Here is the input.
Amino acid sequence: MTEKVPRPGYIWVYDFAATAADLPPDSDLASYVSADAPAQTQDQIDDGRKVGAELARELAAQIDAMGVPAKEASVDTQPAINDIVIRGYLVSVTEGDAKKRVAVGFSSGESELKIVAEGFQVTDQGLRKLGGGASESTSSKKPGAALGLVGVIAMHNPIGLIVSTGIKQHDEKTGSSTMSGRIKEIASEISGILKQRFQQQGWIE
Here is the structure.
Protein backbone atom coordinates (compact mmCIF):
# COMPACT_ATOMS: atom_id res chain seq x y z
CA MET A 1 0.00 0.00 0.00
CA THR A 2 2.41 2.65 -1.25
CA GLU A 3 -0.20 5.35 -1.83
CA LYS A 4 -1.74 7.31 1.02
CA VAL A 5 -5.25 6.12 1.82
CA PRO A 6 -7.62 7.91 4.24
CA ARG A 7 -8.10 6.06 7.54
CA PRO A 8 -11.28 4.02 7.17
CA GLY A 9 -14.17 4.28 9.58
CA TYR A 10 -14.36 0.49 9.42
CA ILE A 11 -12.67 -2.42 7.72
CA TRP A 12 -15.29 -4.94 6.64
CA VAL A 13 -14.20 -8.57 6.24
CA TYR A 14 -16.57 -10.76 4.25
CA ASP A 15 -16.77 -14.53 4.69
CA PHE A 16 -14.16 -16.20 2.51
CA ALA A 17 -15.92 -17.74 -0.50
CA ALA A 18 -15.97 -21.53 -0.59
CA THR A 19 -17.82 -22.26 -3.84
CA ALA A 20 -17.66 -20.91 -7.38
CA ALA A 21 -21.19 -19.58 -6.87
CA ASP A 22 -19.90 -17.38 -4.04
CA LEU A 23 -17.20 -15.82 -6.24
CA PRO A 24 -17.97 -12.18 -7.19
CA PRO A 25 -17.89 -11.73 -10.99
CA ASP A 26 -15.49 -8.78 -10.68
CA SER A 27 -12.91 -10.79 -8.75
CA ASP A 28 -9.47 -11.18 -10.34
CA LEU A 29 -9.69 -14.84 -9.36
CA ALA A 30 -12.62 -15.50 -11.71
CA SER A 31 -10.35 -15.74 -14.75
CA TYR A 32 -8.22 -18.42 -13.05
CA VAL A 33 -11.04 -20.82 -12.13
CA SER A 34 -11.07 -23.93 -14.33
CA ALA A 35 -14.28 -24.55 -16.26
CA ASP A 36 -13.75 -28.31 -15.92
CA ALA A 37 -13.31 -28.30 -12.14
CA PRO A 38 -15.20 -31.23 -10.57
CA ALA A 39 -18.43 -30.55 -8.73
CA GLN A 40 -18.17 -30.24 -4.96
CA THR A 41 -20.03 -32.48 -2.56
CA GLN A 42 -22.45 -30.87 -0.12
CA ASP A 43 -20.07 -31.72 2.73
CA GLN A 44 -17.22 -29.93 0.96
CA ILE A 45 -19.41 -26.86 0.44
CA ASP A 46 -20.61 -26.86 4.06
CA ASP A 47 -17.10 -27.41 5.47
CA GLY A 48 -15.64 -24.70 3.25
CA ARG A 49 -18.26 -22.16 4.25
CA LYS A 50 -17.65 -22.89 7.93
CA VAL A 51 -13.93 -22.30 7.44
CA GLY A 52 -14.60 -19.16 5.37
CA ALA A 53 -16.85 -17.69 8.04
CA GLU A 54 -14.45 -18.51 10.88
CA LEU A 55 -11.51 -17.03 8.98
CA ALA A 56 -13.39 -13.78 8.32
CA ARG A 57 -14.51 -13.56 11.95
CA GLU A 58 -10.99 -14.18 13.28
CA LEU A 59 -9.33 -11.75 10.87
CA ALA A 60 -11.84 -9.00 11.69
CA ALA A 61 -11.26 -9.52 15.42
CA GLN A 62 -7.48 -9.33 15.05
CA ILE A 63 -7.65 -6.17 12.93
CA ASP A 64 -10.03 -4.58 15.43
CA ALA A 65 -7.64 -5.43 18.27
CA MET A 66 -4.93 -3.35 16.55
CA GLY A 67 -7.00 -0.23 16.95
CA VAL A 68 -8.52 -0.07 13.47
CA PRO A 69 -12.28 -0.75 13.77
CA ALA A 70 -13.17 -3.92 11.89
CA LYS A 71 -16.21 -6.16 11.68
CA GLU A 72 -17.30 -9.30 9.88
CA ALA A 73 -19.54 -8.18 7.01
CA SER A 74 -22.78 -9.65 5.72
CA VAL A 75 -24.86 -9.26 2.57
CA ASP A 76 -26.74 -6.45 4.33
CA THR A 77 -23.60 -4.46 5.21
CA GLN A 78 -23.44 -1.00 3.62
CA PRO A 79 -19.86 0.27 3.93
CA ALA A 80 -19.31 4.03 4.04
CA ILE A 81 -17.07 6.03 1.71
CA ASN A 82 -13.36 5.37 2.47
CA ASP A 83 -14.13 2.17 4.39
CA ILE A 84 -12.00 -0.82 3.41
CA VAL A 85 -13.54 -4.09 2.21
CA ILE A 86 -11.62 -7.37 2.39
CA ARG A 87 -12.91 -10.27 0.32
CA GLY A 88 -11.31 -13.68 0.47
CA TYR A 89 -11.53 -17.08 -1.17
CA LEU A 90 -10.59 -20.69 -0.44
CA VAL A 91 -8.96 -22.08 -3.57
CA SER A 92 -7.99 -25.68 -4.37
CA VAL A 93 -5.29 -26.23 -6.99
CA THR A 94 -4.91 -29.74 -8.42
CA GLU A 95 -2.01 -30.85 -10.63
CA GLY A 96 -3.30 -32.19 -13.96
CA ASP A 97 -1.57 -34.00 -16.81
CA ALA A 98 -0.85 -30.76 -18.66
CA LYS A 99 -1.92 -27.95 -16.37
CA LYS A 100 -3.13 -27.04 -12.92
CA ARG A 101 -6.86 -27.12 -12.25
CA VAL A 102 -8.12 -24.27 -10.08
CA ALA A 103 -11.40 -24.49 -8.16
CA VAL A 104 -13.03 -22.43 -5.43
CA GLY A 105 -13.47 -24.23 -2.11
CA PHE A 106 -12.57 -27.68 -0.82
CA SER A 107 -12.09 -30.43 -3.41
CA SER A 108 -11.28 -34.13 -3.65
CA GLY A 109 -7.92 -35.68 -4.45
CA GLU A 110 -4.40 -34.45 -3.86
CA SER A 111 -4.83 -30.71 -4.08
CA GLU A 112 -3.22 -27.65 -2.57
CA LEU A 113 -5.42 -25.29 -0.59
CA LYS A 114 -4.66 -21.61 -1.04
CA ILE A 115 -6.15 -18.62 0.74
CA VAL A 116 -6.59 -15.63 -1.57
CA ALA A 117 -7.57 -12.14 -0.39
CA GLU A 118 -8.47 -8.92 -2.16
CA GLY A 119 -8.74 -5.49 -0.56
CA PHE A 120 -10.86 -2.58 -1.77
CA GLN A 121 -11.46 1.03 -0.81
CA VAL A 122 -15.08 2.20 -0.93
CA THR A 123 -15.44 5.27 -3.17
CA ASP A 124 -18.43 7.23 -4.46
CA GLN A 125 -17.97 5.36 -7.74
CA GLY A 126 -17.83 1.90 -6.21
CA LEU A 127 -15.04 -0.36 -4.97
CA ARG A 128 -11.46 0.52 -5.90
CA LYS A 129 -9.00 -2.35 -5.66
CA LEU A 130 -6.05 -1.90 -3.31
CA GLY A 131 -4.39 -5.28 -3.56
CA GLY A 132 -4.49 -8.99 -2.87
CA GLY A 133 -2.38 -11.94 -1.95
CA ALA A 134 -2.18 -15.68 -1.47
CA SER A 135 -1.52 -18.14 1.31
CA GLU A 136 -0.83 -21.74 0.38
CA SER A 137 -1.05 -25.13 2.02
CA THR A 138 0.20 -28.41 0.58
CA SER A 139 -0.13 -31.82 2.15
CA SER A 140 3.59 -32.42 1.68
CA LYS A 141 4.84 -28.93 2.66
CA LYS A 142 7.44 -29.13 -0.12
CA PRO A 143 10.21 -26.52 0.27
CA GLY A 144 9.86 -23.67 -2.17
CA ALA A 145 6.40 -24.68 -3.36
CA ALA A 146 5.32 -22.18 -6.00
CA LEU A 147 2.37 -19.89 -5.50
CA GLY A 148 1.10 -21.11 -8.86
CA LEU A 149 -1.63 -19.47 -10.93
CA VAL A 150 -3.33 -17.52 -8.19
CA GLY A 151 0.05 -16.21 -7.07
CA VAL A 152 0.03 -13.91 -10.08
CA ILE A 153 -2.54 -11.83 -8.22
CA ALA A 154 -0.03 -11.15 -5.47
CA MET A 155 2.77 -10.12 -7.79
CA HIS A 156 1.31 -6.92 -9.22
CA ASN A 157 -0.51 -5.26 -6.34
CA PRO A 158 0.51 -2.77 -3.64
CA ILE A 159 -0.33 -4.94 -0.61
CA GLY A 160 0.92 -8.41 -1.55
CA LEU A 161 -0.37 -10.41 1.40
CA ILE A 162 1.63 -13.59 0.94
CA VAL A 163 1.67 -15.92 3.96
CA SER A 164 2.86 -19.50 4.27
CA THR A 165 0.58 -21.05 6.89
CA GLY A 166 -2.35 -22.93 5.41
CA ILE A 167 -4.95 -25.63 5.92
CA LYS A 168 -4.43 -29.35 5.29
CA GLN A 169 -7.87 -29.93 3.89
CA HIS A 170 -7.62 -33.74 3.89
CA ASP A 171 -5.91 -34.21 7.25
CA GLU A 172 -7.74 -31.78 9.49
CA LYS A 173 -11.42 -32.03 10.36
CA THR A 174 -13.51 -28.89 10.11
CA GLY A 175 -14.46 -27.66 13.57
CA SER A 176 -11.55 -29.43 15.27
CA SER A 177 -9.12 -27.61 17.52
CA THR A 178 -6.37 -28.23 14.96
CA MET A 179 -8.38 -26.64 12.16
CA SER A 180 -9.30 -23.68 14.37
CA GLY A 181 -5.65 -23.26 15.24
CA ARG A 182 -4.70 -23.20 11.56
CA ILE A 183 -7.32 -20.57 10.86
CA LYS A 184 -5.99 -18.38 13.67
CA GLU A 185 -2.45 -18.78 12.32
CA ILE A 186 -3.52 -17.69 8.84
CA ALA A 187 -5.45 -14.71 10.22
CA SER A 188 -2.45 -13.78 12.39
CA GLU A 189 -0.06 -13.77 9.46
CA ILE A 190 -2.43 -11.70 7.32
CA SER A 191 -3.14 -9.25 10.15
CA GLY A 192 0.57 -9.03 10.93
CA ILE A 193 1.33 -7.82 7.41
CA LEU A 194 -1.70 -5.52 7.49
CA LYS A 195 -0.40 -4.02 10.74
CA GLN A 196 2.79 -2.98 8.99
CA ARG A 197 0.76 -1.37 6.20
CA PHE A 198 -1.47 0.42 8.71
CA GLN A 199 1.60 1.77 10.48
CA GLN A 200 3.00 3.02 7.17
CA GLN A 201 -0.29 4.79 6.57
CA GLY A 202 -0.18 6.36 10.03
CA TRP A 203 -3.44 4.72 11.07
CA ILE A 204 -1.84 3.12 14.14
CA GLU A 205 1.47 3.49 15.98
